[in-house]
Amino acid sequence: QKEVEQDPGPLSVPEGAIVSLNCTYSNSAFQYFMWYRQYSRKGPELLMYTYSSGNKEDGRFTAQVDKSSKYISLFIRDSQPSDSATYLCAMSVGRTGTASKLTFGTGTRLQVTL
Amino acid sequence: DGGITQSPKYLFRKEGQNVTLSCEQNLNHDAMYWYRQDPGQGLRLIYYSQIVNDFQKGDIAEGYSVSREKKESFPLTVTSAQKNPTAFYLCASSITSGVRYEQYFGPGTRLTVT
To answer: I want to staple A100 with a disulfide (CB 3.0 to 4.6 A). Which of A58, A113, B6, B94 is the partner?
Structure first.
């Protein structure tokens, strides 16, 4: 079993829909959670960063962490064709003073159609 | 603008040849990383470096080598010993102090070996 599980999709939604992307994990030591967006043939870019359980909102994006269930989510409201990309979740135990090793999900490919 | 540059964007080599991928950052980050990305497998860590003149093997280091002679630079050599070198290679960097654990990625190099 992988340490982080993520549905690969593809997920196809109409423009304006609410999108829910999810990851589950098995290592209870993870405390820092990230979502990256990766356009085709580009490097991943950081979208959301959260610590421990709770919600964080940034514009149309909301990141949610439920440590008790070992489950994280990314919600995209009013989805746009420009949101079409692969979304990667990433997690870290977090040890200051060392390199920040991240464990990534395999990514979910999202397609927002007109 | 601060960021990470990788060159070249596309690289073609014949089987049996070593090839070096360039990664430079001007973010003043201490840590740097190399990942390999294959379809359906997410990001796999090849090597990482926490500080100049120090580097550690990641999960799939066999057939690869790195050096870290300058803080800004972390080149990756794909040797002829790497059995399946064709992939998308991503370089990343991060801080090692404080409580932020995200990594910032370069645009990637697509290597094709025939």
So the answer is: B94
pLDDT digits (tens, 9 = 90+) for A55-75: 999 999 999 999 999 999 999
Q: Which residues of B touch A34 (CB under 8 A)?
A: 101-102
Check A100 against B41: CB less than 8 A apart.
Answer: no
Specify the pLDDT at position B1: 63
Q: Is B73 on the interface with A (CB under 8 A)?
A: no
Instruction: Answer whether A85 touches B (CB < 8 Å).
Output: no
| Record: contact B31-A100, CB cut-off 8 A | yes
Taking only the tens place, the pLDDT of each residue in B16-72 is 999 999 999 999 999 999 999 998 788 999 999 999 999 999 999 999 999 999 999
- Residue B7: which residues within 8 A CB-CB, separation 6 or more? B22, B109
Are B14 and B24 within 8 A, CB to CB? no
